[in-house]
Amino acid sequence: MVTLLNREWYQTIARRRSRRLYEARPVAPATLEQLDRFCREFKPFPEARAVLVSAPGEELFRGILGHYGKIKGAPAFIAFMGQVESPYLYERVGYLGEGVILEATCLGLGTCWVGGFFRPEVAARLVGARPGEKVVAVTPVGYAAGRWSAEEKLMTGFGRNHWRKPLAELVTGLDQSYWPNWVKVALEAARLAPSAVNRQPWRFEVGKNTITVAVDNLHDTYNIPKRLDCGIAMLHLDLGALAVGVTGTWEFLPPPRVARFAL
């Protein structure tokens, strides 16, 4: 079982982009096998898992997917799922899924978080979901096209979707002048996390040797739980801290808070 984080993911955070247009060729077998093995072994939480399907999944990505646009040409996809009864299903699936997506990026593959505009019943059938499991999100996987389609440019606002709110709008608690270096690096990594339609719902409270993640409000939008986005930010926060030699543990919290990272 792989639970340790890949240090290369930290460098991958800044360059990864969501891609919807893929080359019409299969993923190299060795690369696909490596990614499949990682999906099976990376289990930061026992109730969440990722399943790679080496098939295009036309049923899954057919037509317009809301604000996400069309997924075209991907030869495979990954489903992220977890036990419905888990009280922290969404944040744990978000954390797991972002690890898988960053690993795929390190392997030279394109991906795109799709959390609200896919067919979950189709995904569950294709991956063989177990009783009590829910497919929360999926990503296409393949070699991203060298050029950006007009539709991709429209969906990303010609790069504006990678814009992020400044930390001053996101952080409360300990005054920034007292932050140790690991807090600064961890928060900068967390603010770069992807989120549904770039809504950036996470908020952070800095304490003495702690960072608490919360949602901006309890109103989910685009049919995607905000706690899924916050789980993605949690992984980024972990990676930022790890990049400067700091590790900690997570304590999950009731809404509107999500979890607390503590040295």
TrEMBL record:
Pfam families: TM1586_NiRdase
GO molecular function annotation: oxidoreductase activity
Matching CDD domains: Nitro_FMN_reductase
Top-rank taxon, per record: Bacteria
Domain Putative nitroreductase TM1586: 10-241
Name of the protein in its database record: Putative nitroreductase TM1586 domain-containing protein
Organism: Moorella mulderi DSM 14980
